[in-house]
Amino acid sequence: MQPDEAILMATGTALLLLGIASIAFSKNLIKSMMAFQVAVFGANLALYTSGLLAPPDLQIHVFVILSILVGAAVEAAGLAVIVTVFRKYRTLNPAEIRRMRA
Amino acid sequence: MIYTAWLTWLIPLLSVPFVTLLGMVDKRLRGWFAVVVSGASLVLATLGALDFAGPATESLHLWLPPLSVSIEVQVDSLSVLVSAFVAFVSFLVVVYSIGYMQKEGGEGLTRYYSLILLFIGAMLGLVMAGNLIQFYFFWEIVGVCSALLIAFFTDRESARKAGVKAFVVTRFGDAALLLAVILVWWIFGTTSFTTVLGPQGVSTLGGGTVFLLGVLILVGAMGKSAQVPLHGWLPDAMEGPSTVSALIHAATMVNAGVFLMVRMLPLFLLQQELLYIVTFVGLLSALVGGVCAFGAQDLKRVLAYSTISQLGIMFAAVGMGNGVAATYHMVSQGLFKALAFLAAGSVITAVETRDMEEMGGLRKQMKYTFVGFTLAMLAMSGLPPLIGFWSKDAVLSLAFAAGPLQVAALILAFAATGLYSFRALAKVFFGQPRGKGTASESPAVMLVPIIVLSISVILAWGVLYPQTIYPIASLGLPDTATLATSLSVLAASLLVVYLAFSLYAQKTKQLAATSPTMKSLKGALLEGLGFDRLYSGIYRGVAGPLAKAVSSIQTGLLEANAALILLAVMTLFVLFAVGVL
After folding, report:
1. Which residues of B touch A21 (CB under 8 A)?
2. For residues B409 and B287, is the Cβ–Cβ distance under 8 A?
3. Is B556 part of the contact surface with chain A (CB cutoff 8 Å)?
4. Mean per-residue pLDDT over chain B, rounded
5. Which of A4, B91, B413, B478 has fewest C-beta within 10 Å?
6. Neighbouring C-beta atoms of residue A55, cutoff 10 Å
7. Residues B482, B205: Cα–Cα separation, whole Å
8. Between chains, do A94 and B559 touch, taking CB under 8 Å as contact?
9. DSSP B479
10. Contact B506, B206 (CB under 8 A)
11. Residue B478: is the preceding peptide bond cis (ω within 30°)?
12. Closest chain A residue to B557, measured at CA
């Protein structure tokens, strides 16, 4: 692994971990959504980097672009859900939204 | 390019979203749009059958490159015949739906017609599929659609439960089939039917692998085709609208299993043991279904158990090594069962109950429905020259070649068929009216499909037997032995029913009420020989505690879940860094 690629890979991994950690500790659904996107970007970056390793694989890059597109769609859907949740519960704190529990 | 083979299933599948859009313009458009789409599908399937020149496969596009799966169609005599038949029955059911769903309240019709079109398109796609992965894809869509349609009346708890049950029970079979698909892909690197069933395919495998594959595929087909012991979902599926029952029983859902068996028949022919297992499963289901149908109180349950029984006969035909007879009986069963369900739906909306105890004496009030139902029951019990006679005798003559045990079991199953058919007929249409109000005949849009199916039940043999697409003529005409057997079985069951009903008012009823053995027998038949109780016992004993243990982990807290994911990812990293993985 070349130094550049090692840096990319490490950044991707760090983003993924940071994203998941922020989801775990955030008290606001919108921040959770942002953290989720950070995690997805980290994963995409790591995936993209793995496409640079020998032999270079274009299919992986195509897949990364697909993943970015799907990520955008997921973000839109997620924000829509959050808006609905806010209208219904008047709060965005996941700990307070407990009415889904049986 | 064989356009018909592609468009037959693509048109219904692609038209699904338009139901919603048209519903926004005018609500009445939804039903007629479905009629037009399924009609187009029927025209294309018929054209495909008429233009059929010989077996061919066509692949359009590489769909899953890593698995080397392409979207392909397989045009052969089997897929052409079955797709034309499926499209025919589905079209009539959709036409009937327009009148029937209006009578049922007319709520949620967007959902109804979208699902129906998806259901039909998926079934046609399954029939035309050229490889196992594509087949499995449509197989699952068919399963989901049927579960959702069974639970169509979402405000009834029993309907929701029946939908879940259908989904869960067929899942056992689906899991087995998925394993079989993976196994095939793993061995051959492709799942194309032409390769897998060709000279370089399954015939080169060892005995153990063939047996494993055969059993997995059989279990998959058993789940879909409701064979004992995976049959429990079919009688409960009666909670859906009658049109859905007609589709599930005649055209789409349950036939998929038999179709799979016929498609994979070259695999089963490799081992005699496999064939014996298939025959055993089929004959067992034929008997269990026949016996349970005799005890059922609910008109649609009688028909459901009879479907299990008829499907068992098809499996037995496959087990006796003849796919042509199985397909023939599938088509024949599809025609008369669709007719029976449409007629039953007409009766049920007229008297507003499914309990046969509250029907009776309807033959004067509902003349057309009566004629349709009678023809369906006569065809089911095998009266010549209706279509059921020819297909059942084809299976019976196979049994004569196979052995005395098979003959005995088949004759018992046929006798049960005759008994429950005549019983249902007598209870619904003869005797004194036991219902509350007066019933009246259904509207023309419901009667036309019944009339068309009645005619087809009478004439289908004349159309199907001499056709050159599918080698039905190779089955030959019934010889004297099969003819004599089936006619005497029919006569005996008629006699039994006549005696039972002439005595019904006095002795039979008394006996059933007083004798404890008769009472417990009646109870056992009513609950379908206790299969459901057995399964709920197993669930309570094993699956229930397990589910409880797992559900305590499911806190539903976002933070907790994310923290657990983080922990798992970190652990993986550490393991990776240390070099364990």
Report:
1. 562, 566
2. yes
3. yes
4. 85
5. A4
6. 4
7. 38
8. yes
9. -
10. no
11. no
12. A95
The predicted-structure confidence for B172-223, as pLDDT tens digits, reads as follows 899 999 999 999 988 888 888 888 888 888 888 888 899 999 999 999 999 9
ipTM: 0.73
Q: Are B165 and B232 in contact (CB under 8 A)?
A: yes
Q: Which residue of A17, A18, A23 to mutate against B (max B Cβ within 10 Å)?
A: A23
pLDDT tier for residue B314 given thresholds of 50, 70 and 90: very high
Count CA atoms within 13 Å of residue A58 on its CB side. Answer: 0
Torsion sign across C-alpha atoms A75, A78, A82, A84: positive
CB contact under 8 A, B558 and A94: yes
User: Is B559 close to A17, i.e. CB distance below 8 A?
Assistant: no
CA distance B183 to B196: 11
Which chain A residue lies closest to B559 (C-alpha atoms)? Answer: A24
Q: Could you tell me if B314 and B282 are in contact, meaning their C-beta atoms sit under 8 angstroms apart?
A: yes
- Calculate how close chain A gets to B83, using CA atoms only, in Å: 36
Q: What are phi and psi of B206, to 5 degrees?
A: -75, 165
The angle that helices B367-381 and B323-351 make with each other, rounded to 10 degrees, is 150
Task: Please count the residues of chain B.
Answer: 581
Q: Report pLDDT digits (tens) over B473-510.
A: 777 777 777 777 778 777 877 777 777 666 655 555 56
- Give the 3-state secondary structure of residue B57: strand
Mark yes or no for CB contact B562/A20 under 8 Å: yes
**Those residues with Cβ within 8 angstroms of residue B465's Cβ, 6 or more apart along the chain or in another chain:** B390, B472, B473
Q: Which residues of chain B make contact with A82, given a CB cutoff of 8 A?
A: none
Query: Which of A20, A32, A100 is the closest to B569 by Cβ?
Result: A20
Find the helix or strand (DSSP H, E) in which B447 lies: helix B444-464
Q: What is the pTM of this model?
A: 0.82
- For chain A, how far is it from start to end, CA to CA, in angstroms? 50
Residue carrying structure tokens 């007319």: B106
Q: How far is CA B386 from CA A36, B89, B315, B463, B491, in A?
A: 64, 17, 22, 12, 16
Low-confidence winner among B6-10, B335-339, B349-353 (lowest mean pLDDT): B349-353
Cβ burial of B123 (10 Å; 0-12, 13-18, 19+) is buried
* H-run or E-run covering B63: strand B56-64
DSSP B54: S
Out of B556, B562, B573, the one facing A24 most closely (by C-beta) is B562
CB-based contact A20 B558, cutoff 8 Å:
no
- Secondary element (H or E) of residue B75: strand B69-75
Q: For residue B220, which of B192, B193, B182 has the smallest C-alpha distance?
A: B182
Report CA-CA distances (Å) from B125 to B74, B288, B321: 10, 32, 26
Cβ neighbours of residue B197 closer than 8 Å, sequence gap 6 or more: B264, B266, B267
Place of tokens 């973000």: A75
Residues on A contacting B at a C-beta cutoff of 8 Å: 13, 16-17, 20-21, 23-25, 32, 94-95, 98, 100-101
Q: What is the 3-state secondary structure (H, E, C) of B217-272?
A: HHHHHHHHCCCCCCCCHHHHHHHCCHHHHHHHHHHCHHHHHHHHHHHCHHHHCCCH
Looking at residue B511, what is its pLDDT? 60
- Asked whether residue B313 carries a pLDDT value surpassing 60, the answer given is yes
Contact between B388 and B471 (Cβ < 8 Å)? no
